[in-house]
Amino acid sequence: MIKKAPIKEVPPKQKRSSEEKAANSKTSVGTRNKLVKSALAHKIMSLLIKKYPEAECELSYKSPFQLLIATILSAQTTDASVNKATGPLFKEYPDAKTLASADIKHLRELVKPTGYYNAKAANIQACAQQLVDQFDGQVPKTQEELVTLRGVGRKTANVVLGVIYGVRGWAVDTHVQRLSKRLGFTKEKDPVKIEKDLEKLFPHEDWSKLSITLIFHGRRTCFAKKPACHLCPVDKLCPSAYKIK
Ligand code: SF4
Are 89 and 125 members of one domain? Predict the structure, then answer.
């Protein structure tokens, strides 16, 4: 005779309280984490804004055209080097028409303090020529048009749009890329993906202000090598504090 195995008694499922159910339906773990991350990010940025109330574009210019050219020249160098070069440059070639017809050898000499001067001289002259040919010598007002210009990427376009035309945007330069990662705002490496993460994290009206604030912090405290965490107002909140030598 075959002996039947005893049937295990399955304990009844514990009923969840109605409060628990409500809490779980309102905010999932993912949503709660996002809220915590967002609150922390806002706290960090409000402290940094307090530290740098004067944060604004440090390039010297007298017109949208001059800011555009100065921003193209600012790649891989400091604003101080750019300002040193653009003083004499804009004295001789203050607008798109004069710069487009400049002697290229002379241009190279003038932009030498900014580094990569062969490529930069060629870029700013080609950009000036495009402005003359396609935009009546004026700087266009949309990102789509700006990025068609030689030497102009999203970062340069967003700087010009934000500073000149008041269009909010993230200028994801080397400082914004580095600090966004250190502060835990993004895990991305690609500047466009970083820009998207920052756009999701902060309100639209603050994008330009926060962008220049991060740039200021990167230049003055959160250096690429040996950041001065002991002088940083967000060292208690920053996930990278004191970890980078
Ligand atoms: S604590 Fe250090 S790593 Fe973090 S933002 Fe400040 S300076 Fe940069």
Answer: yes
Q: In angstroms, rounded to a whole number, what is the distance separating the alpha carbons of residues 128 and 106?
A: 15
Pocket of ligand 1 (CB under 6 A): 182-183, 221-222, 227-229, 232, 234-235, 238, 240-241, 244
Same domain, 151 and 220: no
Q: Is 57:159 a contact under the CB 8 Å cutoff?
A: yes
Atom of ligand 1 nearest to the CA of 244: 3
CATH number of residue 189's parent domain = 1.10.1670.10
The string over 5-43, giving b where at least 16 C-beta atoms fall within 10 Å of a residue's C-beta and e elsewhere, is eeeeeeeeeeeeeeeeeeeeeeeeeeeeeeeeeeebbee
The pLDDT tens digits for 17-48 are 554 454 455 567 888 788 888 999 999 999 99
**Choice from 43, 215, 229 to test ligand 1 binding pocket (greatest atom count within 8 A of CB):** 229
Give the number of the atom of ligand 1 that is nearest the alpha carbon of residue 235.
1
Indicate if 108 and 158 belong to the same structural domain: yes
Tens-place pLDDT, residues 53-102: 999 999 999 999 999 999 999 999 999 999 999 999 999 999 999 999 99
At 212-245, the pLDDT tens digits run 999 999 999 999 999 999 999 999 999 999 987 6
Atom of ligand 1 nearest to the CA of 233: 6
Q: Is residue 20 part of a domain?
A: no
How many domains, in total, are found in the chain?
A: 2
Q: Would residue 50 count as lying in a domain?
A: no
Q: State pLDDT tens for residues 168-211.
A: 999 999 999 999 999 999 999 999 999 999 999 999 999 999 99
Kindly list the catalytic residues: 155, 173
Amino acid at 3: K
Q: How many CB atoms lie within 10 A of CB 3?
A: 5
- Domain with 141, as residue range(s), is 64-165
Task: Identify the domain boundary among 139, 165, 191.
Answer: 165
